[in-house]
Amino acid sequence: MRFLTLLCVLLLSVCSGAFAQDVQIRVLVAQQNKIQLLLPFAHYVMGPDGTVIYQSSTPVQWDLEMKSGHIQINGQDSGRDTLHFQETVAAQSLLLNGVRYRGAMSIYGQGSNLTVVNTLNIEDYLRSVVPAEMPPSWPIEALKAQAIIARTYAIERLNPKGLYDLCATQQCQVYKGQSSEHPLVDVAISQTYKQIIAFNQRPAKTFFSSDNGGYTASSAEVWGSNLPYLVAQPDPFSVGPRSSWQLNISFSQLTSIARGYGFKGTATGFRIDKYSGSGRVVQVSVLSDGAAFALSGAEAGGIIRAFGGYSTRVAAQTNENGVVIVGAGFGHGVGLSQYGAKGMAEKGYSSDQILGFYYPGVSRGGYVIAGPAPERQTSKPLMALNPLSWN
Questions:
Q1: Which of the 8 DSSP states describes residue 85?
Q2: Which among 92, 90, 72, 93 has a CA at the least distance from the CA of 81?
Q3: CA-CA distance, 327 to 265, in Å (whole number)?
Q4: pTM
Q5: CB within 8 A of 369, min separation 6: which ones?
Q6: What are the sequence ranges of the domains in the chain?
Q7: Are strands 269-275 and 336-337 parallel, antiparallel or unpaired?
Q8: Which one, of 312, 318, 317, 319, lies nearest residue 295 by Cα?
């Protein structure tokens, strides 16, 4: 079940008592025709209107399939296209296709597939996400920074009008259920309980990548959206295993890949025509018999990734064998660099300083949930507190 939430940023010391309720996050964990749910505890099943249609005090395995517009339960037509599987006691876990999850599961029939959504406490969600995104062995201050931006990312993406808030893949944040949980990460999450970062009294858009190659990218150059806390700037801290890499592309490979972008000839060379402020490609050309086939914007970055590039912060040189691509970094480079956070933490910087460096101008605070007003829902302003600085 889902309730509309309003968020405001307050000092953590204020977030207690009636204001201590945690956000519930809904994560898309599967879209397929058949699934198997095992609930090894007392539970109940509700229809789309909230009516309890089944209750069990013992473990039950549910084999579910979408067929003829209805969800089939163990081969029998339920007559419904939505089912909610809810535990009767909190802090227990269930298994979806053999993977253990905390919280509850909602099943929505859509076309020929079942859309499976896991609803759970945001702090439990982070217990899976943070170690899936950052090694638990890394310094605690880096893990705390990752926990804060993961929490902020989730809260910023709350979508009461949709079936779910987030996906479970790299397109959102990697979520693997209980399999990725780790006690060292649990410490980082508990030490940052309810903390998020905000800008202009709203939760920030906390994009992050593995390694920016020594220079962060601005949101404007990557996505065309100018956010003042996602800027291009030198980063002396981001040093990882893919801070420097090289690709050798033959002319036949270049020709084949370029034809996927509309190129018609036989490639004899490749050049980079224009860079962004952070040194990422904005325009490139595939050369053939004196002619130049230009690609710009997303297509310029796309062909670098099609070559196998880890980022678009690259240089290119043509020789008699083909093209040599020399690159730096892994990922889009916007916002926090995970290897940069590791490097800063190893040099003694705190999580606040890490966040202040990668999201200049943001503030840190805690969230609370405001319930509906008696007559109408009113929006409470966000109060950004504790401005962050890295130096």
A1: E
A2: 72
A3: 26
A4: 0.87
A5: 5, 6, 7, 19, 21, 22, 23
A6: 34-111, 130-202+219-236+333-368, 245-327
A7: unpaired
A8: 312
